[in-house]
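hey can u check if this looks right to u? its 367 residues, i copy pasted from the old doc so theres a chance i mangled smth
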Amino acid sequence: MGISRRQDDVIKLDYDRETHTTSSPPGVQVRIPGFGSTSSVEYLTSEKISQSGYMIEPIENVLLPLGYKRDVDLRAAPYDFRKAPNEMHQYFENLRELIEEMYHETGRKVVLLSHSMGSNIARYFLIHHTQEWKDSHIETLISVAGAWGGTVKTLKAFTSGYNFGIPFLNSKAMLSAEMTFPSMAYMMPSGDVWNPDEVFIVSKVVNVTVSNYNELFAALDYEDGYSMHLDTKDLDQIQVAPGVSLHCISSSKVDTPEKFFYDGNNLQEDPVTIMGDGDGTVNRRSLDLCLKWKDLQEQEIQHTVYEYVDHLSILSFYRFYADLRKIVVKIMNDNRLNYDYKIELEKRAEEIRTNPHFSDVLWHRDY
Protein backbone atom coordinates (compact mmCIF):
# COMPACT_ATOMS: atom_id res chain seq x y z
CA MET A 1 0.00 0.00 0.00
CA GLY A 2 1.39 3.40 -0.96
CA ILE A 3 1.96 6.14 1.56
CA SER A 4 0.19 9.40 0.77
CA ARG A 5 1.88 12.70 1.49
CA ARG A 6 0.22 15.71 2.98
CA GLN A 7 -0.14 18.60 0.54
CA ASP A 8 2.19 20.84 2.53
CA ASP A 9 4.88 18.14 2.42
CA VAL A 10 4.59 17.95 -1.36
CA ILE A 11 5.04 21.67 -1.99
CA LYS A 12 7.81 22.34 0.53
CA LEU A 13 11.37 22.85 -0.71
CA ASP A 14 14.77 21.54 0.38
CA TYR A 15 17.48 24.21 0.71
CA ASP A 16 21.06 23.47 -0.34
CA ARG A 17 23.42 25.57 1.78
CA GLU A 18 26.33 25.12 -0.64
CA THR A 19 24.57 26.15 -3.86
CA HIS A 20 22.02 28.47 -2.20
CA THR A 21 19.28 26.89 -4.28
CA THR A 22 16.14 24.91 -3.51
CA SER A 23 14.62 21.75 -4.91
CA SER A 24 11.57 19.60 -4.36
CA PRO A 25 11.79 16.68 -1.91
CA PRO A 26 12.86 13.29 -3.32
CA GLY A 27 10.11 11.73 -5.40
CA VAL A 28 8.30 15.02 -6.00
CA GLN A 29 8.26 16.79 -9.35
CA VAL A 30 6.54 20.16 -9.65
CA ARG A 31 5.59 21.60 -13.04
CA ILE A 32 4.19 25.04 -13.83
CA PRO A 33 1.42 24.36 -16.38
CA GLY A 34 0.39 26.44 -19.34
CA PHE A 35 3.27 28.85 -19.86
CA GLY A 36 2.09 31.24 -22.58
CA SER A 37 -1.58 30.40 -22.07
CA THR A 38 -4.00 32.59 -20.13
CA SER A 39 -5.67 29.47 -18.70
CA SER A 40 -2.81 29.24 -16.21
CA VAL A 41 -3.62 32.57 -14.54
CA GLU A 42 -7.38 32.83 -14.89
CA TYR A 43 -8.03 30.60 -11.86
CA LEU A 44 -5.84 29.57 -8.91
CA THR A 45 -7.21 26.01 -8.90
CA SER A 46 -7.95 23.46 -11.59
CA GLU A 47 -11.63 23.74 -10.65
CA LYS A 48 -12.91 26.93 -12.26
CA ILE A 49 -14.89 28.20 -9.29
CA SER A 50 -15.51 31.82 -8.37
CA GLN A 51 -13.55 31.54 -5.12
CA SER A 52 -10.38 30.72 -7.05
CA GLY A 53 -10.79 33.33 -9.77
CA TYR A 54 -7.64 35.37 -10.34
CA MET A 55 -7.06 37.15 -13.68
CA ILE A 56 -10.31 35.83 -15.19
CA GLU A 57 -12.29 39.02 -14.61
CA PRO A 58 -9.83 41.55 -16.11
CA ILE A 59 -9.44 39.20 -19.06
CA GLU A 60 -13.15 38.65 -19.69
CA ASN A 61 -14.41 42.10 -18.71
CA VAL A 62 -11.73 44.30 -20.25
CA LEU A 63 -9.23 42.66 -22.58
CA LEU A 64 -11.39 40.25 -24.59
CA PRO A 65 -14.06 42.93 -25.31
CA LEU A 66 -11.26 45.14 -26.67
CA GLY A 67 -10.49 42.51 -29.29
CA TYR A 68 -7.60 40.63 -27.70
CA LYS A 69 -7.55 36.89 -28.29
CA ARG A 70 -6.50 34.30 -25.75
CA ASP A 71 -3.13 32.69 -26.50
CA VAL A 72 -2.66 34.90 -29.58
CA ASP A 73 -2.00 38.50 -28.54
CA LEU A 74 -3.06 37.86 -24.94
CA ARG A 75 -0.59 35.55 -23.23
CA ALA A 76 0.46 34.63 -19.68
CA ALA A 77 3.77 33.81 -18.01
CA PRO A 78 3.09 31.86 -14.77
CA TYR A 79 6.01 31.11 -12.47
CA ASP A 80 6.77 29.02 -9.40
CA PHE A 81 5.62 31.38 -6.64
CA ARG A 82 7.78 29.53 -4.10
CA LYS A 83 11.00 30.72 -5.72
CA ALA A 84 12.80 34.07 -5.72
CA PRO A 85 14.38 35.69 -8.82
CA ASN A 86 17.85 34.30 -8.07
CA GLU A 87 16.51 30.82 -8.95
CA MET A 88 14.41 31.82 -11.95
CA HIS A 89 17.04 32.03 -14.71
CA GLN A 90 15.23 29.65 -17.06
CA TYR A 91 11.93 31.39 -16.40
CA PHE A 92 13.37 34.76 -17.37
CA GLU A 93 14.82 33.26 -20.55
CA ASN A 94 11.40 31.81 -21.40
CA LEU A 95 9.76 35.16 -20.65
CA ARG A 96 12.16 37.01 -22.93
CA GLU A 97 11.48 34.54 -25.74
CA LEU A 98 7.72 34.88 -25.23
CA ILE A 99 7.91 38.67 -25.41
CA GLU A 100 10.06 38.60 -28.53
CA GLU A 101 7.75 36.05 -30.12
CA MET A 102 4.70 38.25 -29.45
CA TYR A 103 6.53 41.32 -30.72
CA HIS A 104 7.46 39.65 -34.00
CA GLU A 105 4.05 38.03 -34.49
CA THR A 106 1.98 41.16 -33.77
CA GLY A 107 4.38 43.90 -34.84
CA ARG A 108 3.58 45.72 -31.60
CA LYS A 109 5.48 46.25 -28.38
CA VAL A 110 4.26 44.20 -25.43
CA VAL A 111 2.23 45.46 -22.47
CA LEU A 112 3.14 43.71 -19.20
CA LEU A 113 0.36 43.32 -16.59
CA SER A 114 1.46 42.13 -13.15
CA HIS A 115 -0.03 41.66 -9.68
CA SER A 116 1.54 41.56 -6.22
CA MET A 117 4.94 39.79 -6.22
CA GLY A 118 4.52 39.44 -9.97
CA SER A 119 5.37 43.15 -10.17
CA ASN A 120 8.66 42.53 -8.40
CA ILE A 121 9.38 39.66 -10.78
CA ALA A 122 8.56 41.84 -13.80
CA ARG A 123 10.74 44.67 -12.55
CA TYR A 124 13.64 42.34 -11.80
CA PHE A 125 13.34 41.05 -15.38
CA LEU A 126 13.35 44.59 -16.78
CA ILE A 127 16.33 45.95 -14.86
CA HIS A 128 18.40 43.04 -16.17
CA HIS A 129 17.77 43.95 -19.82
CA THR A 130 19.36 46.71 -21.85
CA GLN A 131 17.51 49.96 -22.41
CA GLU A 132 17.69 49.32 -26.15
CA TRP A 133 15.85 45.99 -25.74
CA LYS A 134 13.22 47.55 -23.48
CA ASP A 135 12.67 50.48 -25.83
CA SER A 136 12.07 48.16 -28.75
CA HIS A 137 9.99 45.45 -27.05
CA ILE A 138 8.10 46.87 -24.03
CA GLU A 139 5.21 49.32 -24.30
CA THR A 140 4.52 49.68 -20.58
CA LEU A 141 4.27 47.82 -17.28
CA ILE A 142 0.89 47.92 -15.56
CA SER A 143 1.54 46.97 -11.95
CA VAL A 144 -1.39 46.16 -9.66
CA ALA A 145 -0.73 45.98 -5.90
CA GLY A 146 3.02 45.63 -6.40
CA ALA A 147 4.85 44.62 -3.22
CA TRP A 148 7.89 46.67 -4.22
CA GLY A 149 9.50 46.82 -0.77
CA GLY A 150 8.09 43.63 0.70
CA THR A 151 5.40 43.33 3.34
CA VAL A 152 5.27 42.91 7.12
CA LYS A 153 2.61 40.23 6.75
CA THR A 154 5.11 37.90 5.09
CA LEU A 155 6.99 37.54 8.41
CA LYS A 156 4.16 35.27 9.52
CA ALA A 157 5.31 32.77 6.90
CA PHE A 158 8.13 31.95 9.31
CA THR A 159 6.25 32.25 12.59
CA SER A 160 2.53 31.53 12.83
CA GLY A 161 1.63 30.96 9.17
CA TYR A 162 0.40 33.04 6.24
CA ASN A 163 -2.36 32.20 3.75
CA PHE A 164 -1.25 34.63 0.97
CA GLY A 165 -4.51 36.51 1.39
CA ILE A 166 -6.44 33.57 -0.04
CA PRO A 167 -9.44 32.86 2.23
CA PHE A 168 -9.69 29.12 1.56
CA LEU A 169 -6.05 28.44 2.56
CA ASN A 170 -5.37 27.56 6.20
CA SER A 171 -2.42 29.56 7.56
CA LYS A 172 -1.40 26.98 10.16
CA ALA A 173 -1.49 24.17 7.61
CA MET A 174 0.72 26.20 5.26
CA LEU A 175 3.40 27.06 7.82
CA SER A 176 5.71 24.03 7.55
CA ALA A 177 5.85 24.39 3.77
CA GLU A 178 5.91 28.14 3.21
CA MET A 179 8.79 28.72 5.61
CA THR A 180 10.91 26.77 3.08
CA PHE A 181 10.00 29.13 0.20
CA PRO A 182 12.75 31.61 -0.81
CA SER A 183 9.94 33.88 -2.06
CA MET A 184 8.86 34.44 1.53
CA ALA A 185 12.36 35.62 2.45
CA TYR A 186 12.38 37.74 -0.72
CA MET A 187 9.13 39.46 0.35
CA MET A 188 10.25 40.30 3.90
CA PRO A 189 10.19 44.05 4.70
CA SER A 190 13.07 45.82 2.99
CA GLY A 191 15.59 48.09 4.66
CA ASP A 192 15.07 50.45 1.70
CA VAL A 193 11.56 51.13 3.01
CA TRP A 194 11.55 50.55 6.77
CA ASN A 195 13.89 52.21 9.26
CA PRO A 196 16.30 50.07 11.31
CA ASP A 197 14.56 50.93 14.59
CA GLU A 198 11.00 50.08 13.52
CA VAL A 199 9.88 46.92 15.31
CA PHE A 200 7.76 44.33 13.47
CA ILE A 201 7.65 41.54 16.04
CA VAL A 202 7.51 42.03 19.80
CA SER A 203 7.98 38.96 21.99
CA LYS A 204 9.76 37.70 25.08
CA VAL A 205 12.20 35.92 22.77
CA VAL A 206 13.15 38.64 20.30
CA ASN A 207 12.10 42.05 19.02
CA VAL A 208 12.49 42.05 15.25
CA THR A 209 13.49 44.90 12.93
CA VAL A 210 15.03 44.99 9.45
CA SER A 211 18.43 45.13 11.08
CA ASN A 212 18.23 41.89 13.12
CA TYR A 213 16.54 39.24 11.02
CA ASN A 214 19.38 36.96 12.10
CA GLU A 215 17.96 37.02 15.64
CA LEU A 216 14.49 36.11 14.38
CA PHE A 217 15.75 33.01 12.61
CA ALA A 218 17.97 32.12 15.56
CA ALA A 219 14.89 32.25 17.80
CA LEU A 220 13.07 30.02 15.32
CA ASP A 221 16.11 27.70 15.12
CA TYR A 222 15.90 27.99 11.35
CA GLU A 223 19.30 28.79 9.88
CA ASP A 224 18.13 28.15 6.30
CA GLY A 225 15.59 30.98 6.63
CA TYR A 226 18.29 33.53 7.37
CA SER A 227 20.46 32.17 4.57
CA MET A 228 17.56 32.59 2.14
CA HIS A 229 17.14 36.16 3.38
CA LEU A 230 20.79 36.91 2.63
CA ASP A 231 20.39 35.31 -0.81
CA THR A 232 17.46 37.55 -1.73
CA LYS A 233 17.64 40.82 0.23
CA ASP A 234 19.51 42.80 -2.45
CA LEU A 235 17.89 41.36 -5.56
CA ASP A 236 15.49 44.22 -6.25
CA GLN A 237 18.09 47.02 -6.43
CA ILE A 238 15.58 49.65 -5.36
CA GLN A 239 17.86 52.48 -6.56
CA VAL A 240 17.53 51.25 -10.17
CA ALA A 241 14.49 52.40 -12.13
CA PRO A 242 12.65 49.88 -14.33
CA GLY A 243 13.33 51.96 -17.44
CA VAL A 244 9.86 51.58 -18.97
CA SER A 245 6.60 53.45 -18.79
CA LEU A 246 4.91 52.37 -15.55
CA HIS A 247 1.30 52.46 -14.37
CA CYS A 248 1.46 51.85 -10.63
CA ILE A 249 -2.02 50.92 -9.36
CA SER A 250 -2.72 50.12 -5.72
CA SER A 251 -5.14 50.57 -2.84
CA SER A 252 -5.13 52.15 0.62
CA LYS A 253 -7.14 52.44 3.84
CA VAL A 254 -7.46 48.69 4.33
CA ASP A 255 -6.22 47.39 7.69
CA THR A 256 -2.77 45.91 7.03
CA PRO A 257 -0.45 44.27 9.59
CA GLU A 258 2.34 46.56 10.81
CA LYS A 259 3.38 44.87 14.04
CA PHE A 260 2.87 41.52 15.78
CA PHE A 261 2.81 40.99 19.56
CA TYR A 262 3.51 37.44 20.73
CA ASP A 263 2.56 36.72 24.34
CA GLY A 264 5.19 34.32 25.59
CA ASN A 265 8.04 32.39 24.05
CA ASN A 266 6.14 30.62 21.28
CA LEU A 267 6.32 32.52 17.99
CA GLN A 268 4.00 30.00 16.35
CA GLU A 269 1.00 31.12 18.37
CA ASP A 270 -1.46 33.61 16.89
CA PRO A 271 -0.19 37.13 17.67
CA VAL A 272 -2.01 40.31 18.53
CA THR A 273 -1.74 42.40 15.38
CA ILE A 274 -1.39 46.17 15.10
CA MET A 275 -2.80 47.44 11.84
CA GLY A 276 -1.77 50.30 9.58
CA ASP A 277 -2.44 51.57 6.08
CA GLY A 278 -2.21 49.36 2.99
CA ASP A 279 -4.31 46.95 0.96
CA GLY A 280 -4.67 44.28 3.62
CA THR A 281 -1.57 42.41 2.47
CA VAL A 282 1.01 44.99 1.34
CA ASN A 283 1.82 48.05 3.42
CA ARG A 284 1.17 51.46 1.88
CA ARG A 285 4.81 52.54 1.97
CA SER A 286 5.77 49.47 -0.05
CA LEU A 287 2.97 49.98 -2.56
CA ASP A 288 4.02 53.63 -3.04
CA LEU A 289 7.69 52.86 -3.58
CA CYS A 290 7.19 53.18 -7.34
CA LEU A 291 7.08 56.96 -6.85
CA LYS A 292 10.79 56.79 -6.03
CA TRP A 293 11.62 56.01 -9.66
CA LYS A 294 9.98 59.13 -11.08
CA ASP A 295 13.23 61.05 -10.76
CA LEU A 296 15.37 58.10 -11.87
CA GLN A 297 14.03 57.54 -15.38
CA GLU A 298 12.77 59.48 -18.38
CA GLN A 299 9.76 57.25 -18.97
CA GLU A 300 6.47 58.34 -17.43
CA ILE A 301 5.23 56.87 -14.14
CA GLN A 302 1.53 57.19 -13.35
CA HIS A 303 0.31 56.50 -9.82
CA THR A 304 -3.29 55.51 -9.07
CA VAL A 305 -4.56 54.72 -5.58
CA TYR A 306 -8.05 53.42 -4.77
CA GLU A 307 -9.51 53.30 -1.27
CA TYR A 308 -10.94 50.41 0.75
CA VAL A 309 -10.16 47.73 -1.84
CA ASP A 310 -8.12 44.75 -0.68
CA HIS A 311 -5.13 43.06 -2.31
CA LEU A 312 -7.08 40.48 -4.33
CA SER A 313 -10.39 42.30 -4.77
CA ILE A 314 -8.63 45.05 -6.69
CA LEU A 315 -8.53 42.70 -9.70
CA SER A 316 -12.34 42.72 -9.83
CA PHE A 317 -12.84 46.37 -8.87
CA TYR A 318 -14.93 48.38 -11.33
CA ARG A 319 -12.58 51.39 -11.23
CA PHE A 320 -9.63 49.16 -12.02
CA TYR A 321 -11.57 47.85 -15.04
CA ALA A 322 -12.18 51.43 -16.19
CA ASP A 323 -8.56 52.47 -15.72
CA LEU A 324 -7.18 49.33 -17.36
CA ARG A 325 -9.51 49.85 -20.32
CA LYS A 326 -8.43 53.49 -20.60
CA ILE A 327 -4.73 52.59 -20.55
CA VAL A 328 -5.09 49.83 -23.13
CA VAL A 329 -7.35 51.85 -25.45
CA LYS A 330 -4.87 54.75 -25.42
CA ILE A 331 -2.04 52.38 -26.32
CA MET A 332 -4.15 50.83 -29.10
CA ASN A 333 -5.04 54.27 -30.47
CA ASP A 334 -1.45 55.51 -30.28
CA ASN A 335 -0.23 52.40 -32.06
CA ARG A 336 -2.91 52.79 -34.69
CA LEU A 337 -1.85 56.39 -35.30
CA ASN A 338 1.78 55.34 -35.48
CA TYR A 339 0.84 52.55 -37.86
CA ASP A 340 -1.19 54.90 -40.09
CA TYR A 341 1.68 57.41 -40.12
CA LYS A 342 4.11 54.66 -41.09
CA ILE A 343 1.81 53.54 -43.92
CA GLU A 344 1.50 57.15 -45.12
CA LEU A 345 5.30 57.56 -45.14
CA GLU A 346 5.71 54.32 -47.08
CA LYS A 347 3.03 55.43 -49.53
CA ARG A 348 4.79 58.74 -50.12
CA ALA A 349 8.13 56.99 -50.55
CA GLU A 350 6.59 54.65 -53.14
CA GLU A 351 5.06 57.60 -55.01
CA ILE A 352 8.45 59.30 -55.17
CA ARG A 353 10.17 56.12 -56.35
CA THR A 354 7.64 55.59 -59.14
CA ASN A 355 7.59 59.22 -60.23
CA PRO A 356 9.57 59.67 -63.51
CA HIS A 357 10.92 62.89 -62.14
CA PHE A 358 12.56 60.99 -59.25
CA SER A 359 15.49 59.67 -61.34
CA ASP A 360 16.16 63.13 -62.68
CA VAL A 361 16.20 64.58 -59.20
CA LEU A 362 18.48 61.74 -58.09
CA TRP A 363 20.98 62.54 -60.83
CA HIS A 364 20.68 66.32 -60.32
CA ARG A 365 19.53 66.98 -63.87
CA ASP A 366 18.66 70.55 -64.73
CA TYR A 367 15.51 71.51 -66.50
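The chain is about 35% helix and 15% strand.
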